[in-house]
Amino acid sequence: MKKDGDFSRDERMTSLIADLTWIATGWAPEPLMLEDSPLLEQWHWNTYPESADPALGGIVTGHPIRGGGTTIETSPVLAFGVSGNWVRTASRFYRLGKARADG
Question: I want to staple 48 with a disulfide (CB 3.0 to 4.6 A). Which of 4, 53, 73, 95 is the partner?
Fold first, then answer.
């Protein structure tokens, strides 16, 4: 099984396009599908550096590259689950825990 850092740019883009195509039809990932996705706690809206694209900041656990307990800024958010418990960024799905108190 490939680790996150082992996927080529083309593989990442293919996965992103497939996910966004499905999401556009009203599909949403089931909790079981997201269980290996990183969890973002104390999350808040931000903008991706050098752009106006929406992104999230927060404390991540289970990230395949950044590990756990690390404060991160995500890549741009491209889809936000209606249930409010997941996002699809340009690089991956994230499960969302509690938002930061000041939003």
Answer: 53
